Amino acid sequence: MTAEATPALVEGAAGAGPEGSGPAARRRARAGTAYPRYVAGKLVGAAVSLLAVLVTSFFLFRLIPGDPVKFMTGGRPVSAQQIAAYRREFGLDLPLWRQFTDYCGKALTGDLGTSYQFHGPVLDKITEALPNTLLLTGTAFVLYTALGVLLGTRSAWRHGRFADRFHTGLALTLYSIPSFWLGLLLIIVLSVGAGPVPGLFPTGGMESGGEEGFAHVLDVAHHLVLPVVTLVAVEYGQTLLVTRSALLDEMGGDYLTTARAKGLRDDLVRRRHAVPNALLPTVTLIFVNLGRTVAGVILVETVFSWPGLGGLFYQALSVPDLPLVQGLFFVFAAAVIVMNTLADLLYPLLDPRVGR
């Protein structure tokens, strides 16, 4: 027996022991517990982030100037006793630390408080406006994600050509335009009409009213066109640029050269090999944007008078309706945190190297 074979035999004997305590067994044990530890760490991080958001939402919006009691009285002259009654009704007469502990205690049970202006539970107003926001931003999300991934993939594969320069330049230009400005421009040109161009779409709102059945669906779709076009035009560029950059990083890989040497068409090489390996940055962006669909886009919903969460948030800020503002802020942030956490949990399934 040679000296070189002795260490291998020793290692094999250790790994084949009755308790499986060799190096191979330890590696398998570490691999088996790596993902659960990774998941636990991400979940703990998400819980800490949600707690930080809960604390921040309470103190941040108390810096907003304005007196909610004046709004509730409608600017009418009222007595000091009436003002005191309003403050007592909504807990505004309590010390700040007591308001904070009451707010946190109720929020942990799902009670986000009572709206000053609507005199009803904040959670009810959120659930009422949420479907409208999901319709608008969800439709835009599907369109700009598909468009960004498709054009980003093609631009990277045709790097340096005219199509790549054109799509990249257009994406950068639209991405730099403020969404509210583009929305106002579309309203002027396509809703009000400019010169020979007649007004083709409604200036705002979600429906004209009085329609039923399929006619109602068409009416909502008609109102949906301009805000969706605004969101897609502004947002697709980010997905395009991230997808393009990630794919360009993969373009010089040896495995792509090997795939081409085997006779695979460029289309197959791109779809089966290059794009899957460039997915991680794009997946991150997709999940972040998916979280933002719950928040909506405040400026776009305000410009088009869309009755969603974004418009509700703007309306609450003008009072200020502190419970409603705090509740909406928490829901917006929680949606992004949850989607980011889901993206983190998905990474090891896309790339086993993540989480080890």
Order of helices and strands: HHHHHHHHHHHHHHH
Strand-residue proportion: under 5%
Give the % helix.
Answer: over 70%
C-alpha-based Rg, rounded: 28 Å
Shape from CA axes?
Answer: flat
What's the β-strand tally? 0
* Low-confidence runs: 3-17
Mean pLDDT level: 78
Largest sheet: none
Distance between the termini: 38 Å
| Secondary-structure class | mainly alpha
**SS summary, helix count:** 15
What is the structure about, briefly put?
With 356 residues, the chain is mostly helical. Helices cover 73% and strands 0% of the residues.
General description of the model:
The chain has 356 residues and is mostly helical. Helices cover 73% and strands 0% of the residues. It contains 15 helices and no strands. The radius of gyration is 28 Å and the shape is flat. It starts with a helix and ends in a 6-residue tail after the last helix. Mean pLDDT is 78; it is low at 3-17.
List keywords for this structure.
73% helix; mainly alpha; disordered N terminus; 15 helices; flat; 356 residues; single chain
Provide the fold topology.
Layout (H helix, E strand, L loop, with lengths): L4 H11 L7 H38 L7 H5 L7 H10 L6 H13 L13 H36 L4 H14 L3 H15 L19 H38 L3 H8 L4 H12 L1 H17 L2 H6 L5 H9 L4 H29 L6
Helix pairs in contact: 2-5, 2-15, 6-7, 6-9, 6-12, 6-15, 7-9, 8-9, 9-12, 10-11, 12-15, 14-15
